[in-house]
Amino acid sequence: xxxxxxxxxxxxxxxxxxxxxxxxxxxxxxxxxxxxxxxxxxxxxxxxxxxxxxxxxxxxxxxxxxxxxxxxxxxxxxxxxxxxxxxxxxxxxxxxxxxxxxxxxxxxxxxxxxxxxxxxxxxxxxxxxxxxxxxxxxxxxxxxxxxxxxxxxxxxxxxxxxxxxxxxxxxxxxxxxxxxxxxxxxxxxxxxxxxxxxxxxxxxxxxxxxxxxxxxxxxxxxxxxxxxxxxxxxxxxxxxxxxxxxxxxxxxxxxxxxxxxxxx
Length: 264
Description:
Elements (H helix, E strand, L loop, with lengths): L3 H4 L27 E3 L3 H13 L19 H22 L2 E4 L18 E5 L6 E7 L12 H7 L1 H9 L4 E5 L3 E7 L5 E3 L3 E2 L13 H12 L25 E4 L2 E4 L7
Helix pairs in contact: 2-6, 3-6
């Protein structure tokens, strides 16, 4: 069935109660002023999928029950790759794209970007230019819907750091069960999509989009010319101190904030 690869939901992961690794966090933070809602996200996703596949049909997971028991980020990530990367591989290949490890691709600037994301969407052919970056956390340590905005902004700092280092305008943060997509809207700011759930059952409503459908949408952007960010900021981006009133200085040597813009 045309579109089945992007419309189907994902199966629930299997995990033993009381087992599993604890939370993993890096010292990169965004402030609440740096994030805002990506309000037309649902509309853009469905518009793109309908254009390519027609009206969506609700489909159950292609795998009804998981057998692999997860307990850490690597295990969860492996299941994500199995259910998403493989399902979209043919579609992405037609756009000269592929999911891949960051070590298998190249940064736009050609230099060492530093910390590496968990997953990327990169060009299929050599040298594998990286165009979208993704960060994975375990669902039993990270519940996006229960977070206050300040905690949520701090959590997204790690993904923002990767997006800046790799000069990509788009990225995604996922716990497998919950996923949000980021769009760099300005030098220091990002738009954040609503939370997309792995078990969403599709309907013609824009709000009922599948995770695969959303990743297909992001891939179409990566296949075009608007995937790249215009300027690398550096460590100032993810210090968590930027506000809408922060004076920003642009120069040939880089971007800086005046001293009074820091909170301490």
